[in-house]
Amino acid sequence: MGQILLSAVSLGLLWSVLVLGVYVTYKVLDIADLTVEGSIVLGAAVAASMIRGGHNPAAATIAAFFAGSIAGLVTAVLHTKLKIPALLAGILTMTALWSVNLRVMNSANVSILRIPTVFTAFTNLGVSKYAAWIILGGSVSLLLVFALYWFFGTELGGAIRATGINKNMVRAQGINTDTMMIIGLMISNALVALSGALIAQSQSFADVQMGMGSIVIGLASLIVGEVLLGRRFFLVRLLSVIFGAVVYRVIIALVMEFGMVPNDLKLFTAITVTVALSVPYISAAVKQRAGARDGGGHA
């Protein structure tokens, strides 16, 4: 059981980078961006292909980060300049990335087994692979949390947050909301691709289908974190992303250990997200009905 939990925590930290990217679009920009399912594979494909080609793993990981930002730029341009709805723009980019990722890898998957990765420096020191994932994944995710906290506290970051809250108000202040959307989507997908690069190196391969369901996993982790840590200060909300990703992976590991069939995993995730998203509305409706009954009784 201890090994299972260690694996879940380490994997959750690697996925938390993706969840941070989902947070930027879903919570900050207030849009659902399906580019995620393609950009996570793009990051994995770029990193794995470069590492297999003999490039430095750190350089490959950085290249994956910038490749993801380009994917976000494409979605942003489709949405802001061509006026395609954000959901459809993400679907179009995600669909195009399927072919792009196959081109990058020149096959459906790329193996980097027994090839040094960014985790090799830690395993060479004698730590286990899970410990290496936790050290690097935790360090990267925490660094990104504080970087995002600083960035969204700047004038530019504040303008991006305001764009997600009320575009008309932001335009009235003379701010170009299209530019804010472009920057936000580029940051989001860069983080998603970075997560893909780390995940590919942890599992020693990249596969064109590894992104399927990633947006739902990201939303589930995001919601779990919010439920457990609440929506207080902005820094707490960012930290809850990491916590939610880890807890979600632990939950999945436990339900699998207690007998859930792997084929039911996506169904379980979808139900979890549906229930979590419905709770606030159901709770509000129950309180409203209770208030109506109390008001009627007093009358």
Q: Could you describe the 3D structure shown?
A:
The chain is mainly alpha-helical and 299 residues long. Helix content is 78%, strand content 2%. It has helices at 2-28, 36-52, 57-80, 86-105, 120-123, 129-151, 155-165, 167-172, 177-203, 214-229, 234-257, 265-298; strands at residues 109-111, 205-207. A two-stranded antiparallel sheet has the order 1-2. Helix 1 (2-28) packs across helix 11. The longest helix is centred in the C-terminal third of the chain and has 34 residues, at 265-298. The chain starts with a helix and ends with a helix.
Beta content comes to under 5%
Oligomer: single chain
Major sheet characteristics: 2 strands, antiparallel
**Average residue pLDDT:** 90
Which spans have pLDDT < 50 for at least 5 consecutive residues? none
The amount of helix comes to: over 70%
Distance between the termini: 58 Å
Radius of gyration: 20 Å
Alpha-beta content class: mainly alpha
Summed up, the helix count is 12
Tell me, what's the shape?
globular
SSE pattern: HHHHEHHHHHEHHH
Strand order of the largest sheet: 1-2
Give keywords.
single chain, mainly alpha, two-stranded antiparallel sheet, 2% strand, globular
Can you lay out the helices and strands and say which pair or pack?
Layout: H1 2-28, H2 36-52, H3 57-80, H4 86-105, E1 109-111, H5 120-123, H6 129-151, H7 155-165, H8 167-172, H9 177-203, E2 205-207, H10 214-229, H11 234-257, H12 265-298
Antiparallel strand pairs: 1-2
Helix pairs in contact: 1-6, 1-9, 1-10, 1-11, 2-3, 2-4, 2-9, 3-4, 3-9, 6-11, 7-9, 10-11, 10-12
